[in-house]
Amino acid sequence: MKVTLKNVVIGSTSVILIAAMLSACSSTTTPESSSAASAAATTKPLTNLTYFLEMNNNAAPVSKNYNDREVYKELEKRTGVKVEYTHPPIGPEQVKQALNLMVASNNLTDVIDFNWLSYPGGPEKAINDGVIIDLKDLIDKYAPNLSKILKENPEVKKQISTDSGKIYSFPDLNLKNEQLTYTGPVIRQDWLEKLGLTAPTTVDEWYTVLKAFKEKDPNGNGKADEIPFHINTDFWLRDSSFLVGAWGIGFEFYQDNGVVKYGVTQPEFKEYVKTMQKWYKEGLLDPEYATNDEKLFDAKVTGERIGSSIVLAGGGVGKFNQLMKDKNPKFVLQGVTYPTLKKGDRAEIGQKVNYFTGLGAAITKANKNPIETVKYLDYRYGEEGNLLFNFGIEGVSYTMENGYPKYTDLIMKNPQGLPMAQALSKYAGSSPKLIDVRYNEQYSWTTPVLKQSVKNWSDAINKKKMPPVTPSPEESAKFASIMSDVNTYVGEMFNKFVMNAEPIENYDTFIKKLKSLNIDEAIKIQQAALDRYNKR
Q1: pLDDT at 20
Q2: What is residue 45's predicted lDDT score, i.e. its pLDDT?
Q3: How far apart are CA 451 and CA 436, in angstroms?
């Protein structure tokens, strides 16, 4: 269906019509939720909405408030709903702090967009605390677009539900398998070719390649300044499970045929640590890995010193290949498959996210028009809303070519010199939305190298990944307390082992200390949460 400014809902007549339709819906059967039912009895056409939403990093440089963005101006035209946005400081901890202050003051906005899995006690607790409302019945009755998605994708419904069956937010979603992997191991393909090597697929082959990078001057400057492998602890330890997955385990919690395990306590983890210890001792790892920041890492890559690492797709592979194309036309940073122990095997664990990104727009108890707000949010998941939030305004930020929404030069070759991400931020909407794979095709996978990188990373089986489970409100505080101590201790000791500051002979003492920190209790809590999740 071709969507133009002539056939979308805009103009005063259309707005009045929508208002009449929203008003009429207040006389329909109300949901079972008592809070929603009482609100529905006094509903009126939705014209104003207050909205708590973190500003996207790409939008921040070009926008002070989301009402400045063309996508939200257009959304207001189409729906007649004027939104007052509250933007907390950018960053997970800053957003959480701002939310806590808002909850404590009991001065809630109508809608709060937040990663509710990180709410103390989880989303079920947020509902029980009277912060947000259960949306299940409201979505069933008044959100046909999202309801259709949930019916066609039952696993998505499980991911956005609580253990008791409540739905707490309109979700930010990826539905295509290729959209679920966005980071992984990369290597300088041109260095491999220069040294007559091929991309490593096993742990032993990685060692051979890294030794060659260290000893054979692949950057050709006559100095022994190459850093064979750089690690970023966030990607390495938590997100990617690089290398440790070769032993069939995760770094943190994973599941093996429904049984929850914690990777660090598994016997195989010691072998993984010994491998890292050897690599570090022989100068194959960046000696500054624990203190590197993004700026220093970028300088090392563009300074032709990094041979391999863990990076993002567009923000790593795409970024560095673009930055280096003029400086060194031979420069190729290529994503490769996750390593295994045996040649020909597939890694059991790599980086992969859930269909539900975690971010979602919840309706608060302060909202006087929950039904109309549900209808307003549901617009994003229909055909017109999907095009608006992923591609912007037809004829301005995209054109339809044989049914395919193609970004214009305003986005791809911005006249003001804005990077694509910033140019697109003016026209594409933020969470929540259904992230269109055609967006990824034009933003994340814009070159053959990028496409192949994502394909290589996606080769990992990933059946052992934990789904988005939630401890019960009663378990949550205990789990958080245990893992705060565990994560601090593991982080410290892992670096000590890798850097040979702690003898590997003390590894058993390390495991005993984890036991004393109640890691087994945390595993039990995760097991109970997984069991409940599987019954949703």
Answers
A1: 40
A2: 67
A3: 16
Domain identity same for 160 and 227: no
* Of the residues 430, 457, 484, the one at which a domain ends: 457
Region class of 106: left (phi > 0), else alpha (psi between -120 and 50), else beta: left
Residues 324 and 271 in one domain: yes
Q: What pLDDT was estimated at residue 236?
A: 62
pLDDT of residue 511: 97
> In this structure, are 248 and 302 located in the same domain?
yes
pLDDT under 50 in the chain at which residues? 1-43
- Does 110 share its domain with 199? no
Distance CA 102, CA 52 (A): 10
**CATH code, domain with 167:** 3.40.190.10
**Alpha-carbon dihedral sign for residues 181, 184, 189, 192:** negative
> 324 and 254, same structural domain?
yes
With a threshold of 0.90, does the pTM exceed it?
A: no
Q: How far is CA 535 from the centre of its chain?
A: 25
Decide if 418 is inside a domain. no
Containing domain of residue 381, as a range? 11-176+355-391
The helix/strand/coil state of 109 is coil
Cα→Cα distances 263→408, 469, 489, 515, Å: 46, 17, 15, 13
Q: What is the pLDDT of residue 476?
A: 87
Q: Is residue 1 part of a domain?
A: no
Predicted pLDDT of residue 234? 64
Starting at the edge strand found earlier in the chain, the sheet holding 48-52 runs 82-86, 48-52, 111-115, 356-363, 170-173
Looking at residue 120, its pLDDT comes to 87
- Residue 173: the pLDDT is 96
Nearest to 308, CA basis, from 188, 483, 178: 188
**Residue 84: strand, helix, or coil:** strand
Peptide bond into 432 cis (omega under 30): yes
Same domain, 262 and 138: no
Q: Which pLDDT belongs to residue 344? A: 95
Write the DSSP assignment of 276-331 as a string of letters: HHHHHHTT-B-TTTTT--HHHHHHHHHTT-B-EEEEEIIIIIIHHHHHHTTT-TT-
Measure the CA–CA gap between 203 and 272, rounded to whole angstroms: 10
* CA 384 to chain CA mean position, Å: 24
Residues 280 and 384 occupy one common structural domain: no
Which 3 state secondary structure label does DSSP give 420? Answer: helix
Looking at the fold, whether 257 and 327 belong to one and the same domain comes out as yes
| Count of helix runs (H) and strand runs (E) in the chain | 23, 12
3-class secondary-structure state, position 394? strand
Nearest to 249 by CA among 236, 238, 263: 263
